[in-house]
Amino acid sequence: MIAKGKAIKYGDNVDTDVIIPARYLNSSDPSELAAHCMEDIDADFVNKVEKGDIIVAAKNFGCGSSREHAPIAIKASGVSCVIAKTFARIFYRNAINIGLPILECPELFEETEEGDRLEVDFDTGTINNITRKKVFKTQPFPPFMQEIIANDGLVGYIKKTT
Amino acid sequence: MGMTMTQKILASHAGLEEVVAGQLIMADVDMVLGNDITTPVAIKEFRKLGVGNVFDKSKVSIVPDHFCPNKDIKSAEQVKFIREFAREMEIENFFEVGQMGIEHALLPEKGLVTAGNVVIGADSHTCTYGALGAFSTGVGSTDMACGMATGKAWFKVPEAMKFELVGKPGRWVSGKDVILHIIGMIGVDGALYKSMEFTGEGLANLSMDDRFAMANMAIEAGGKNGIFDVDEKTLAYINEHSTKEFKVFKADPDAQYAKTYIIELDKIKPTVSFPHLPDNTRAEGEFGDVTIDQVVIGSCTNGRIEDMRMAAEILKGRKVHSNVRCIIFPATQKIWKQAMNEGLFDIFIEAGAAISTPTCGPCLGGHMGILAKGERAVATTNRNFVGRMGHPESEVYLSGPYVAAASAVTGKISSPAELQEV
Lengths: 162, 422
What we know:
The complex is a heterodimer of chains A (162) and B (422).
Chain A: E1 2-9, H1 16-19, H2 30-34, H3 45-48, E2 54-57, H4 69-76, E3 81-84, H5 89-98, E4 102-104, E5 117-121, E6 126-129, E7 134-137, H6 143-150, H7 154-161
Parallel strand pairs in A: 1-2, 2-3, 3-4
Antiparallel strand pairs in A: 1-5, 5-6, 6-7
Helix pairs in contact in A: 6-7
Chain B: H1 5-14, E1 24-28, E2 31-35, H2 39-49, E3 60-63, H3 73-88, E4 93-94, H4 103-109, E5 118-121, E6 135-138, H5 141-150, E7 152-156, E8 160-166, H6 175-186, E9 195-199, H7 208-216, E10 225-228, H8 232-241, E11 259-264, E12 271-273, E13 281-283, E14 294-297, H9 299-302, H10 305-315, E15 325-328, H11 333-341, H12 344-351, E16 354-355, E17 376-379, E18 395-398, H13 401-410
Parallel strand pairs in B: 2-3, 2-5, 3-4, 5-6, 8-9, 8-11, 9-10, 14-15, 14-17, 15-16, 17-18
Antiparallel strand pairs in B: 1-7, 12-13
Helix pairs in contact in B: 2-5, 6-7, 10-12, 10-13
């Protein structure tokens, strides 16, 4: 699978309260959540995001609440992949469980500017910054997680294996 | 090779003799928890699995506590949706307004979680039950759905950080100050993917309510779980609250730790986390001159009876500052009744504080105490992220009940030591 889009950049410790503020959690409708994605740190996000875009962040992305509404909002806004130096653990498993591709890449953040064109090959774990002509390799997921991802999330995996 | 407390519990629930850090396992769970925000998403995923029933109707707990009592029509619809599911599945532990409390105060109080359990909850503060010597961790709604269907969850076995507690906390220091101090020391991702294991002779000087507050905030250091050694206090609590079978796990003497910290409890001062991260801590003497508009005392971190007593100790004979709204939230019906019977409500009301029914409400900016643009609150809650309690340009300062109550009196962030005698 290949993802392709422009980079949208954020810093350290992007928490789930800013990814989707709690005042919108009286709904779990993905498109409604997407309409408020990133609202409290980047009110312009919903205007600039295009299908396929890739969020590039620094460390501890998705810290805080366990709300799955956060990866759901990101996925429904059209983002194809989130690449961070590290992820908070609940966000990490939620993303895998709902089939939002994520990658850990410590080097990409410093080598990428907002708006750069990126291409990600999930099969090889390769990230290509087309704008800056730089290629990054990431660690592949363990086979168990790859299987969850290949089945579009944990529900698909469990349906297939039980 | 030796195993940590967490590793032993996980091994026992995965049917394995031994596990090692980094290993991926499927483990049996003893309790699956959800609330009014996370359960609706879980139900939708559960339906996709095509199973007719939950794996065990006594091992699922659903607590509508976040936007409850329902704050608006959409919240009411969400709770109605989960109520109908709970009835259809005959879930034994569904708690309506009137019985409900804040989930992480309620489940231990009802004896639904105990030592040696594996607990998953679609709420990040599920790590609270580590105070009882359980492995408990926050997960998402899809994990909750699959947990309800199969009674299992996948885990990457964490490596551990050891916190060896020594000494005795000072006069105005509670478990909250200890955990804020630790988060300030290691950072909001200091324990990322790891378990935080609390042990040492100093444990004897921390009450169960202190420990609940500490385990509760393991997630604010990025931890997968926080877990305490089981001692006499734990056993007394368990025997008083639960009839469930329990098992005490101890770390092997040769267990491996990524890092060991010695925490000298007597050196910790009243601590406050300044905006906008829990690790942005300042100790007594460094608070500066920060005027405030609101004080919130309650939440899954500090809404227990001892927290109420600490607040009352400060507010007795004093008045809430005229520029401050002080709102107090006992976390469960039982705590509410106990606080009332101990006369704490008289103290709160005479001081000019408001008392609310149990709810997570203001902690996450839901309802019952939302901040306007530019307003500041001191709160005994657990997060001070941008916009957490309301407007994105409002501010939350995290503290324990002593500092929160003292600040309500002075109208600025204050240590109890600054108050005049009454």
